[in-house]
Amino acid sequence: NEPTRMDPASATELREFLSNSNTRMERQEEQMMATGRAVQALVAQVSELTTQLQQLKVETASTQQPSMPDPPAPVDQTARTAEPRLPPPAFYSGEPQLCRSFLAKCSLYILLQPSSFPTEDSKVAFVITLLSGQAASWGTTVWEQKLPCCASFQSFSEELKKVFDHAASGREAARLLAELRQGNRTVTDYSIEFRTLAAECGWNSEVQWDMFLYGLSDFIKDEIYSLELPIGVDSLIDLAIRVDTRLQRRGQRTPQGLPATPQGHFSSVPGETVLSLPDPEPMQMGRSRLSQQEKQRRRERGLCLYCGAAGHIAAQCPNEHMDLSNVPCEYLDLKGVFSKSRAASLPPHRPYDCAIDLLPGTTPTKGKLYSLSTPEREAMEKYISDSLAAKIIHPSSSPAGAGFFFVKKKDGSLRPCIDYRGLNGITVKNTYPLPLMSSAFERLQGASFFTKLDLRNAYHLVRIREGDEWKTAFNTPRGHFEYLVLPFGLSNAPAVFQALVNDVLRDMVDQFIYVYLDDILIFSHSLQEHVQHVRRVLQRLLENGLYVKAEKCVFHAQSVPFLGYIVSAEGVRMDSDKVQAVVNWPTPDSRKALQRFLGFANFYRRFIRNFSQLAAPLTALTSTKTPFRWSSAADATFAKLKGCFVSAPILVAPDPSRQFVVEVDASEVGVGAVLSQRSSADGKMHPCVYFSHRLSPTERNYDIGNRELLAVRLALEEWCHWSEGLGVPFIIWTDHKNLEYIQSAKRLNSRQARWALFFGRFDFSISYRPGSKNIKPDALSRIFDNSECPSFPESIVPQKVFVSAVTWEIESKFRMASQGVTPPPGCPPGHLFVPECLRSEVIRWGHCSKVACHPGVNRTTFLVKQQFWWPSMAHDIRLFVLVCSVCAVSKSSNRPPLDSFSRCQFLRDP
């Protein structure tokens, strides 16, 4: 007969059962031994108390004196002996998290030793003797000054809590409980913190059950879900602790933050995730940087590069040291928002996950595998290892694969880049708008304090939509990987992140903050208000899993660099570093280099008056129709333009509550405008922004009135977000007097009628200002290069059809005949008075000449009135035209035809 073979699974279960039984027996033995020791201690204490009691009885009997008066009541030595002997509480130096436990220990000690503290003063004095550090300084002060809080132990305890107890309570504890996660800790440690916060927030057991399960690590949750879930939160905690203990004993609990196997070598056998962890190593102190050999050794063994321990990476090190020297003390209780480890962890899925929708019928292409140098390979190894440990990437089998390479930063370090151009070309674009740079600073009027925040790992705080991760795959010499978070280089990344930040800070945007991607500017009128604003923003960011770089933030400043500008209470000016870059720019030696310079300088064109005129010779060199030749004139223009950056003015922030002044002017080649406001400090006009526009060939044909009106229309179009819907009408200054009547004119041409409908949206008044005072807009209107414009008016008629210029011969005759004639009073200035002897000839010239061609009464009067005048001119011209024989024969009457009655009546009249 063959021997019976045992099932391997049954053997394993039997070994586990025996192991658990041995463990339970060991625990029971320890408990029994502890109970025995406690019983022996109680027996000894009872024996000692009995002996002392007998001695007290003997002493009392021997000291009784009947003849003596009754002595004071003796202290009950029996009661004193019955009081347990306890060590006094530990010293307290003012730590907020230890305040409640210290007071609880003091209260229990006083309660168990009542004979030692017969009065309230003794209780308060006892607590003060246990204070140290800043707590001792405070306690000594209140005791020496005999403040009311020293009257009783209860009052002193409440005052001590007011000063030092800042522990989470109520809503704050609820918020911390909602954010609590197990992380790298054991379930036991996690449950202790969970129970502490749960006791403060007061949530019911059902909510606590859900929150505790949600905060467990995925590995523990997977094991719990495979079992029957308990009902109560206490039962759930006990189950989670047992599961965690069992997994730790079997060595199958994968450390959080580490891949299953080191150095990216993944097991081919499913479920084979056992990893032997080396012993923890002490953190290296006194060394600023690890050597390359030490770094490599720790990476190979899966150790933290900061503390040298296993089970986590440097970004998630529990011994994380945060440099908060730049952070004001008002925000140190929110230090979690500056955490590097939290920012490096994998964020949860949210409604703002980045979707990568492809155009119909397209698939991502496979990119090029780039060759890397030795330094680049080392940087790639570090980037891949850290990213795998942080779980922001994982190995991929995607058919897509973008190229992976490095570019150098300003400090010489290497930045990883992924060539997503192929993927971006077939991606459906997200059209969420980014903020306009032109309107970035219009809310800063009156602000005096500024804080700039820079978000940490901004894009990596957004997940890729589940199911789209394969599209982000990239190829490296080490392998094929894909992102779980939003990488740099995707076309939709800015729009997705801007939507996230705008929604998180929606009620604060344009009120006291301005957000542009990962840069946040907070502005306030007073310091007290500013502290509240900054605190609200930091609190909101922390609640939504967004983190800040403390080392790059600027707090409570009156002048702060932001998006290439310097923002202050005075206004907005150019960044001195950017100005210095322009001043030190080398002379361009190619068309491409010149385009780079003009593109960089064009960013600040709003600060430079006559920028287009100054840059026109350089702009002409960028044309591909002519060869690039750097001349002395171009070099002089280049130097002059760089000099203008040094002397650029400060532009004040527009204030919609005060009146605007728009100065406009037009020339033959362009129009210009300046938006200004009068300062309440010095009463002077200060520019807010400049505007200039080159006229098109069609617009150059407008008469001067229409060109001036065009300048008004273009300026209002440019600044409609400031000038439309204001409570105070704004003023437009122009050097063309006729524009004053444009709003009340009854007859307009078709172009002016169209523009009048546009002007109806605004509340303004036009005021005439002589050209000698309208200098700024006049200069802007002439900044454009007029080399293409002729110096004389152009005609649409060919020159070959002209014979000669037309002159008025009657004017020369008149001047000869009227010498010595004095004009009577009432003659308009600039007109010639016609004597009676020449009036018929002047009228004949104005009506019968080839220039006139026999017009009617009104037309003849208009033509003669251009140069001539006499008192009865209108009457004389009317009589002459009515008796003109040519007009009578050639022209039909414009009167209505006579009926039969009128004709008969006409014949009867003499």
UniProtKB/TrEMBL annotation:
Domain of life assignment: Eukaryota
EC number: 3.1.26.4
Cited SUPFAM superfamilies: DNA/RNA polymerases, Retrovirus zinc finger-like domains
Membership in a protein family: Belongs to the beta type-B retroviral polymerase family. HERV class-II K(HML-2) pol subfamily.
Segments of this protein annotated with the region Disordered: 1-22, 60-84, 250-294
Reverse transcriptase domain sequence ranges: 388-567
Protein name: Gypsy retrotransposon integrase-like protein 1
UniProt KW Membrane keyword: no
Domain CCHC-type as annotated: residue spans: 304-319
Keywords: Endonuclease, Hydrolase, Metal-binding, Nuclease, Nucleotidyltransferase, RNA-directed DNA polymerase, Transferase, Zinc, Zinc-finger
Family annotation (Pfam families): Integrase_H2C2, Retrotrans_gag, RT_RNaseH, RVT_1
GO MF term set: RNA-directed DNA polymerase activity; RNA-DNA hybrid ribonuclease activity; zinc ion binding
Enzyme class (EC, first level): hydrolase
CDD domains the UniProt entry points to: RNase_HI_RT_Ty3, RT_LTR
